[in-house]
């Protein structure tokens, strides 16, 4: 006996949750299969910085579009999601990074994103707990922050209200030709299957170029106003987009609750979810260079998560080689930000609706090119 759905989602992280809600709102009959619990993967480990990034025109288009969708959704999000807009301050350490501030500012302005260049004095006034002097910074006021786990739980609950069926504690063992088989041997048939299994998506869609990229975060006690914006070193760009080596970068987020999240790190080649003390030490050293007082703040928890990284730092959104299996994976460090745009683009594709931005740069059809470049 099999059950029939319009769409079966694999994975209830933020991407699966956003897709489930989008499809359910479009009137489709949806099932979501989650091997563990909602947001138990990268989503539950993430910072929740809703940020516009401009590593490539396609990344800029997707992050900007998705940030606007979050802003539209914000009024109905429950308080537990702690959505607010502290803005981002990109800190420049030296003249070279100030040149990058000006380049970024020009790119953002040309794309309708307002930013303000801060000199050394203005930066010190905006963030009194930063070490001084730094060369300056770019303030991007529209960037937001949210708590990813309750955001995913909210979207799953809303999809359920619209009739979506949520199955947790069961893993998908295979998905192809419109058929999903669970590890408990249950069979689900679907017009479309969406692989939103994050860093585990290659277990279902074999051969896709998605690799695990481990990250660490630390959470402090409540220190209201200690940081007023999401603070990121511009060197983060070198780190986030750098090569294979382990890297850390200064990235501090003030949660609405007053807690501070301190990050961040990136490692390829580790499948071990346990904390790496040398990474935590390096993260703290980097954080103290930018904000010396952080050393004396009480840390209450540290954890790790696995991002799903693609070689060109863009997600895979759209049909795989098997046209019944759509991919919604490979969001690396931007999946909280880009989840809503991913869901909208996939629904537009499936329902033959026009899209606000072209889906082409994210289509898995580029996989062969990516594999050749690897
Ligand atoms: C330390 C860290 C900080 C981050 N900070 C940010 C940030 O500030 N802003 C931002 O935009 N992004 C951030 N990210 C990235 C973001 O967390 C991810 O891009 C995003 O969570 C991906 O969501 P997802 O739903 O694709 O994957 P996941 O959240 O990993 O969800 C995949 C789900 O699929 C399930 N699953 C896997 N295999 C199966 C199977 N066979 N059957 C059934 N279920 C299965 C898993 O259990 C999991 O729940 C960060 C990531 C990390 C690690």
Architecture overview:
β1 (2-10), α1 (14-25) and β2 (30-34) form a beta-alpha-beta unit. Strands 1, 2, 8, 9, 10, 11, 17 and 18 form an eight-stranded mixed beta sheet that branches. The protein has an eight-stranded mixed beta sheet with strand order 5-6-4-13-14-15-12-16, with helices on both faces. Strands 3-7 form a two-stranded antiparallel ribbon. The termini are far apart. The chain has helices spanning 14-25, 42-45, 57-73, 95-110, 120-126, 148-161, 235-240, 277-290, 335-350, 367-373, and strands spanning 2-10, 30-34, 49-50, 88-92, 116-119, 136-140, 144-145, 165-168, 172-176, 179-182, 187-195, 211-222, 230-233, 247-254, 259-268, 299-309, 316-319, 325-329. With 374 residues, it is of the alpha/beta class. The longest helix is centred in the first third of the chain and has 17 residues, at 57-73. The protein is 30% helix and 29% strand. The chain has ten helices and 18 strands. The protein is globular and about 65 Å long. Bound molecules: flavin-adenine dinucleotide. Flavin-adenine dinucleotide (FAD) binds at residues 10-16, 33-36, 40-43, 45-49, 171-172, 196-200, 203-204, 215, 217, 264, 305, 307, 329, 331-337.
